[in-house]
Specification:
CATH superfamily: NE0471-like N-terminal domain
Shape: globular
Structural class: alpha+beta
Number of strands: 6
Oligomer: single chain
CATH architecture: 2-Layer Sandwich
Radius of gyration: 12 Å
Strand content: 25-35%
Largest sheet: 3 strands, antiparallel
CATH class: Alpha Beta
Strand order of the largest sheet: 1-2-3
Number of helices: 2
Length: about 80
């Protein structure tokens, strides 16, 4: 990402299922299905505890986080959103 600022998510809005609308600091928006990124025990907990809707944009690293510590990096979601 030479010369570009690192992606930073400023807001997330849950839509339907595991789809969310993301707002990035540069003003870009994207709708992304997070399910393909939610792999492993920490994400299993999100579904078991029915906490998907508790997703937040982390104000420090600009990614997505859940109360149990699960997270997804902003650059992963920005790259996916641009495909």
């Amino acid at each position: 990402m030479t010369g570009e600022a690192l992606p930073f998510i400023t807001a997330v809005h849950v839509l339907a299922g595991t789809k969310v609308r993301l707002l990035f600091r540069d003003g870009a928006t994207s709708i992304v299905d997070l399910r393909p990124f939610m792999v492993g025990a920490v994400f299993d907990e999100v579904f078991e505890w029915h906490e998907f809707d508790a997703v937040m944009a982390d104000p420090e690293f600009g990614g997505l986080v859940w109360p149990n510590g699960a997270d997804i990096a902003p650059e992963t979601l920005r790259d996916y959103a641009q495909e």
